[in-house]
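task queued by scheduler; priority normal; single chain, no ligands, no partner chains; default sampling; output format set to structure tokens
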Amino acid sequence: MNTDLKLEVMGKGDLISPFSARECHQTLTTIPQAVFRRTVNGDLKCINSHGHQKFLSTIRCKDKAPPAFDGLWKGMTLKVGCIQPVTQPVNAGCLAVQMDREGFDHHLFDYGSGVWPATPSENRWMSISPGFPGGFMTYKPILFMMVKNYALETDEWGLTVGWTLDLEEI
């Protein structure tokens, strides 16, 4: 496989066929739901709902074979195991931290780049060893996303197949 990327159509299986997902790039950007307004005193405020804090993603890959996109259409839901990690701060002395989203490939680092053990438990909580001096939790999120569009391209003489997939978190 040579990639951590996971693309699964719910109930149908994985879309990453052999030799279809090397040289992958992924972007995660926030959806433009927040509205900025100024108060009477000129202070800037963000009018936003926590339920609207979602991601857009574009995944681009180039390899020797196409992914299994036959039958994949706009509006279909995918379970995406991202290759783009996210990182959140963890306070000193914390014994547990809750990740914003379900994830995999967890790493807990202190400020000196030392690696600490962290054990997954229920509801996205990670248990942390006592004595943690503070630092960061990094993980690759698992997102449920809807297909917005995709494109396939072939370089016949270069013997490569490229593809781009645009997604929005549901």
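post-processing summary
- The mean pLDDT is 90.
- Residues 6-33+45-169 form one domain.
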